[in-house]
Write a structure and sequence with these properties.
The protein is α/β, with parallel strands linked by helices. It is about 50% helix and about 15% strand. Strand 5 and strand 6 form a beta hairpin.
Length: about 280
């Protein structure tokens, strides 16, 4: 129980409010069953949101999904790394950050090829759409057992790479690789000097992380679909829910997976299960 109600970055409030504000959609059976879940969520809003930042004084940064031409089985890593680094930016009081969902919506609306996101020109184009100052982009190559990242920080106004760093390691060591990339990102403008540990985005378990990203991708891709902008197919939500449940099997203390499990139950109109997931 304490794992679910801890003061993690993703609390009940953000999780369930994302149901309507971020996804902007619901399944046919969910409309009349989300109010009680949302009411329970609002009790923890303050802890989740934290201090507001004066936007005029701080740079706005976003992390784009990492691009790759590697085997599809490694495709989840691009979204997973972007999500983890975005969560770390959220914890900084020295930048404004854009959520990965905002970035994904802009990519889709402007029909940007995700495979080209690592190029300065495409990164700058996306950054201008988002009103950002800097873009963090990367390409990676994965072939068991190794993976190599080339990360670039792009000045959006100039469409110019201002910082590049590389990292190579073992695929099983992805949580530590992400922490290494985070250290280099934070050192770039000396954003924060707090110790950076593997798994601070919620889990250091590689398999739990993978299942979470797979589930989130299903919900995001469905909710951004122009074919059904206001309705998520229940089958898709059930599949996503299965991924979140598998994530919790690998790491029962993974707060993000509990939050996303609650979202999935709420989308299905299962308010009791949603409340249990966040309770």
């Amino acid at each position: 129980m304490s794992a679910r109600t801890s003061s993690s970055a993703l609390t009940t409030a953000l999780a369930v409010l994302a149901l309507l504000s971020s996804f902007g959609c619901q399944t046919a059976t969910a409309a009349s069953n989300t109010s009680s879940v949302t009411a329970a969520a609002t009790t923890t809003t303050t802890a989740a949101v934290g201090k507001s930042k004066p936007k005029s004084a701080l740079p706005t940064i976003f992390v784009a999904p990492f691009s790759t031409d590697s085997s599809p089985e490694y495709g989840w890593i691009g979204d997973g790394m972007a999500l983890a680094l975005t969560v770390r930016l959220h914890k900084s009081n020295q930048v404004n950050y854009l959520s990965l969902r905002q970035v994904a919506a802009a990519i889709k609306s402007d029909n940007i090829d995700k495979r080209m996101l690592h190029t300065p020109q495409i990164a700058a184009r996306l950054g201008k759409l988002l009103g950002a100052d800097y873009a963090v982009v990367s390409s990676y190559k994965a072939a068991w057992p190794n993976i190599t990242f080339v990360v670039r920080i792009v000045d959006v106004a100039q469409a110019k790479v201002v910082q590049t760093f590389n990292r190579k390691g073992h695929l099983q060591d992805l949580p530590n690789l992400e922490a290494d990339l985070a250290r280099q990102l934070m050192q770039w403008k000396q954003l924060d000097r707090l110790p950076i540990k593997a798994g601070e985005f919620g889990t250091a378990n590689l398999y739990a992380w993978r299942q979470l990203v797979l589930g989130q991708y299903i919900l995001w891709s469905q909710s951004l679909s122009p074919a059904q902008p206001a309705m998520l197919p229940q089958e898709a939500v059930r599949t996503a829910l299965s991924h979140f449940e598998q994530a919790l099997m690998y790491d029962p203390a993974f707060a993000q997976a509990w939050a996303d499990r609650a979202i999935a139950h709420a989308l299905l109109g299962e308010s009791k299960q949603a409340l249990e997931a966040v309770g």
